[in-house]
Specification:
heterodimer, A: alpha+beta, Recoverin, domain 1, 3-stranded mixed β-sheet, B: mainly alpha, two-stranded antiparallel ribbon, 58% helix, elongated
């Protein structure tokens, strides 16, 4: 009897051990699959962002091409306006600002010039309370900031000491919560707590103007201890594409345009970089083999209006290697500090020993995508890195839900990319599908996807999210296009044209804005036709001229020979069948 | 063989996603995730042995793709470390549910997972609890839990 009980007990404990092992094994597998899905989503976001940057290089080339071939008067007007602006500038701005009244009913923060640290506190409190700074103060701050920036050299200098470390922060991209977190963890800027903000303060996030205001006000209070470097998003053209322009026009309906104009010039006066202790170079776009600091010190930095449209000559003997070449090389280590310490053989002029990349916007792509970081430096000591992540405490979801959210977001963006190249994709699929079965083996499908979309992604792992797969593991390639389509605002446009207009809508918006020098929101029919011809030839688009004429005529809604292009482009958006319509404003990545 | 070529591509894809420096290496701590993302379910002990097989002579903390590929290909070809079917998983919970309530209490679950078998770390335990435990009853209805996980994965 005793033996039986003990052997039962042993058998039971063996069974329960096996059960525990099974559950543990299953859970670890499940968790790993979640992590992998999270990483796939991140890879999608990164790939698309990188591809976007390549598109910008193409746009940049197009502008050069356009300016060379565009013989209309506008060209001279553009160059002319860039020259004469500065003279009238100062007087105009001052007058304009003083004409703006701040009404008694205004509940927001009121700044007192000259600014003091009390104003920094005031702003922080106000923005935490979701208030909006009055346009009058915005303009005044920008105006004063620009005056001061003009006096700065291309590279500002900092000296550190054991009691005075400098904190370097990377991209913030309008994420106000991240800035609050940094100040909370690391203290407010002051004479003993200097900061370098290395560009990309704006675009993508929802509070770009608030971030910029805090940084500018802090700069005005501590000009020697708060260093602002220009990033590729401190650029009026990038702002058009990546959300800052929209944010301003939305928050400042009356004075928005004036703010944008002021910003346009302010950006050009931001220093290129900061040099710490004569040893460390802090610059937004990183460096290349041809980086020559000596040249960059001498460059007239304010001539660089935009990354996308570099001037013919910034400086007679400058080889134009600062901003334009950086567009494709913008480094951002998402959440991780990438420190590759190896002496670089191909940079003989300055021996760069180590390159470190700092990125300060947590949850950049999506909730929980990454952490942010900053670094504290002091001569003679090792750099100290600090990481953080903004979490919305009220919705701390379990891991699988967070992964789902991120995954859905990534897949949605990817599908929108697919639909913008639907015609080319279908051609490729059908070319491979000799038997016209509507199905392709995974490897052929993956090959088409990669070559047409130009994205290096784990297609095999993603296939089940993007298309229907049959019992044999083959992909029904048309299924990807079933529940999603581009809204066609104009019946007369054929789908190939609609697809192209959708795909290039961000580029077109930028181009139209560049042509529209008086910021009226309108361009003439003639300008549109000429620009379109150049655009389609440069981008190799096969669009019937008659189609385009039809479109142009339709866009001229009030028959006065001009086109409201913003309205026109807004009309192209993707409809996901089972969801509310996704308008371009909603997606921050500006694909 | 076509199958082998396909496996190679699949393995390469899964590996590259974790190759953050684009130099054909991944952190050894991600190997478990990669292998599992390819549909295999080795135990911690088996994983440990696998890593010993693919590590460098002098461990660097990184695994190179050239060493990973042949080992992983063989695992896929031999269909080793097959995943746990749903019904087996359910029965495992039922075994632990000695009183046959249809649920396990939070304390019971913690005791089993952190003290027996290949014990969970605190992080793993907390993660599992956050999704599995019903805060009101402080217990896990394992049948519902399993169904939820299965739906989420499909």
């Amino acid at each position: 009897m005793g033996c039986n009980t003990s052997s039962t007990r042993i058998k039971n404990s063996q069974t329960s051990l096996r059960a525990v092992l099974i559950i543990q094994n299953w859970y670890r597998g499940y968790k790993a699959r979640l992590k992998a899905r999270q990483q796939y989503a991140l890879t999608i976001f990164q790939s698309i962002e990188y591809a976007d940057e390549q598109d910008q290089i193409q746009l940049c080339n197009f502008f050069s091409f356009m300016l060379e071939n565009y013989t209309h008067i506008r060209k001279e007007e553009i160059e002319l306006s860039q020259l004469t602006e500065s003279k009238q500038d100062m007087r105009d701005k001052q007058d304009y600002i003083h004409l703006i009244d701040v009404p008694d009913s205004y509940q927001g923060p009121r700044l007192q010039f000259p600014l003091t640290c009390a104003d920094i506190d005031l702003l922080l409190e106000a923005f935490k309370g979701k208030q909006i700074l009055h346009a009058r103060y915005v303009l005044e701050v920008l105006f004063e900031t620009q005056k001061l920036l003009k006096q700065m050299p291309n590279f500002t200098q900092i000296q550190t000491s054991p009691s005075k470390e400098v904190t370097v922060c990377g991209d913030l991209h309008g994420k106000l919560d991240d800035l609050f977190l940094i100040f909370y963890k690391n203290g407010l800027p002051s004479g003993s707590n200097p900061y370098v903000f290395n560009g990309d303060f704006v675009d993508r996030g929802r509070n770009s103007i608030e971030v910029l205001m805090i940084l500018c006000v802090s700069f005005l209070v501590y000009p020697n201890d708060l260093h602002l470097n220009r990033g590729n998003h401190e650029d009026y053209m990038m702002n058009l594409r990546y959300g800052f322009t929209k944010e301003i026009l939305h928050k400042y309906k009356v004075h928005g345009k004036k703010i944008l104009q002021t910003l346009e010039e302010l950006y050009t006066w931001l220093p290129i970089g900061t040099i710490i202790d004569n040893e460390i170079l802090v610059v937004h776009g990183g460096i290349s083999e041809t980086t020559d600091l000596n040249l960059l010190h001498r460059v007239e930095r304010n001539k660089m209006k935009s990354v996308l449209m570099p001037p013919k000559e910034i400086n007679k003997d400058c080889n134009n290697d600062s901003k334009p070449s950086k567009v494709g090389v913008t480094i951002s280590a998402h959440g991780r500090i990438k420190a590759s310490g190896c002496p670089s053989e191909h940079l003989p002029k300055h021996e760069w020993e180590q390159v470190v990349t700092i990125f300060s916007a947590s949850n950049y792509y999506e909730e929980d995508s990454n952490r942010g970081a900053y670094v504290k430096l002091c001569s003679g000591a090792n750099p100290r890195f600090f990481q953080y992540q903004v979490t919305d405490a009220t919705c701390f979801q379990p891991l699988h839900q967070r992964v789902s959210t991120m995954e859905n977001s990534a897949i949605k963006i990817l599908r929108e990319r697919m639909i913008s190249r639907k015609t080319d994709l279908i051609h490729a699929f059908q070319h491979q599908d000799r038997r016209k079965s509507g199905k392709l083996p995974v490897s052929q499908w993956a090959f088409c996807m990669e070559s047409i979309l130009g994205l290096h992604l784990p297609w095999r792992s993603l296939s089940s999210n993007l298309a229907t797969i049959d019992e044999n593991g083959n992909i029904e390639y048309m299924s990807s296009f079933r529940n999603i389509h581009i809204e066609k605002p104009i019946k007369e446009a054929n789908s190939a044209l609609v697809e192209i207009l959708y795909r290039y809508r961000s580029d077109l918006e930028i181009i139209f804005n560049a042509i529209d020098t008086d910021h009226s929101g309108l361009i003439s029919m003639e300008e549109f036709r000429t620009m379109w011809k150049l655009f389609s030839s440069h981008y190799n688009l096969h669009i019937d001229d008659s189609q385009v004429n039809k479109i142009a005529n339709i866009m001229d809604l009030n028959r006065d020979g001009s086109i409201d292009f913003t309205e026109f482009l807004k009309a192209f958006y993707v409809v996901h069948k089972y969801e509310a319509m996704i308008k371009p404003e909603a997606t921050n990545l500006g694909t | 063989e076509i199958a082998v070529a396909e496996f190679h591509k699949k393995i390469k894809e899964a590996f590259e996603v974790f190759d953050h420096e684009s130099n054909n290496t991944v952190d050894v701590r991600e190997i478990g995730t990669i292998i599992r993302s390819l549909g295999c379910c080795p135990s911690e002990g088996e994983l440990h042995d696998l890593i010993a097989e693919i590590e460098e002579e002098e461990p660097t903390g990184y695994i190179r793709f050239e060493k990973f590929l042949p080992v992983m290909t063989e695992i896929l070809l031999e269909r080793r470390y097959r995943p746990i079917p749903e019904d087996v998983l359910l029965r495992a919970f039922e075994v632990l549910d000695t009183a046959k309530h249809g649920f396990l209490t939070k304390d019971e679950l913690i005791k089993y997972m952190t003290e027996e078998g290949e014990p969970f770390s605190q992080e793993e335990m907390e993660e599992m609890l956050s999704a599995a435990i019903d805060p009101e009853s402080n217990s896990i209805n394992y049948k519902d839990y399993i169904s939820m996980m299965v739906i989420d994965e499909n």
